[in-house]
């Protein structure tokens, strides 16, 4: 893919994000002005998320609750040849389109992710972010917090996000790395530390590690989702999907 061929579609799955969605989407306005497509996919919000998102999006879609289902729905609507999946509490750096284009331009990489910085006054979360970035470089696996981007062709070759209730980003990463190694952009996205702060930093770190270990040991994603505190959104995935990957 050469530098002139990128057409970026940014897919943002949302659920009850009224408190911050307008800020996140307004930050995408410069990219939108340059031609990036902004697609917001709502999983059934019962607050003002949709109304607040509508002025800042090119498309506003409904989908069954669950990031995998919502992101797949957004990808199906996208016109771009590069898809970027952005969490609703994560901010892209300035010039993200140029960074993505440069990462994919030589054709040796078909997907990638950004480094992440966790916005928090708790110093331990800066260490957590550094460890996430290092682990991702070593393993070639990315999490949704790192704003995964991928060419449309590679996304389709990988089968999109697996219909599992949790860890869909890790599952996709593991399939994509069979196609190419990831491009690792060291300019970070900024993600909110609210998840850790609300649950407790140490408790959340322990929970995340516990979920990953349980997943590796074969615990079903729907069970992991219940442990995490989110509801499963679909029947248990076929075994081939469950064996492939997970996050949050």
UniProtKB/TrEMBL annotation:
Alphabetized SUPFAM superfamilies for the sequence: Nucleotide-diphospho-sugar transferases
CDD domains, per database record: GT_2_like_a
InterPro entries: Glyco_trans_2-like (IPR001173), Nucleotide-diphossugar_trans (IPR029044), Trfase_2_rSAM/seldom_assoc (IPR026461)
Subcellular location: Cell membrane
Lineage top rank: taxon: Bacteria
One example GO MF annotation: glycosyltransferase activity
Domain Glycosyltransferase 2-like: 9-123
GO cellular component: plasma membrane
Keywords: Cell membrane, Glycosyltransferase, Membrane, Transferase
Designated name of the protein: Glycosyl transferase
């Amino acid at each position: 893919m050469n530098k002139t061929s990128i057409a970026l579609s940014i897919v943002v799955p949302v659920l009850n994000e009224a408190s911050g969605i307008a800020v996140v989407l307004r930050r995408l306005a410069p990219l939108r002005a340059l031609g990036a497509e902004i697609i917001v996919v709502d999983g059934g919000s019962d607050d003002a998320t949709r109304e607040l998102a509508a002025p800042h999006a090119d498309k506003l879609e409904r989908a069954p609750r669950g990031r995998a289902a919502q992101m797949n729905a957004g990808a199906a609507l996208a016109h771009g040849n590069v898809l970027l999946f952005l969490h609703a509490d994560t901010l892209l750096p300035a010039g993200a389109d140029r960074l993505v284009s440069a990462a994919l331009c030589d054709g040796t990489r078909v997907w990638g992710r950004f480094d992440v910085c966790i916005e928090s006054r708790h110093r331990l979360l800066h260490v957590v972010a550094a460890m996430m970035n290092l682990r991702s470089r070593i393993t070639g696996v990315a999490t949704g917090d790192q704003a995964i981007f991928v060419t449309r062709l590679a996304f389709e070759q990988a089968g999109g996000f697996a219909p599992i209730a949790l860890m869909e980003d890790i599952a996709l990463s593991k399939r994509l790395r069979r196609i190419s190694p990831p491009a690792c952009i060291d300019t970070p996205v900024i993600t909110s530390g609210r998840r850790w702060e609300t649950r407790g930093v140490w408790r959340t770190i322990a929970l995340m590690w516990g979920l990953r270990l349980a997943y590796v040991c074969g615990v079903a994603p729907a069970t992991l989702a219940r442990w995490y505190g989110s509801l499963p959104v679909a029947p248990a995935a076929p075994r081939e999907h469950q064996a492939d990957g997970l996050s949050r």
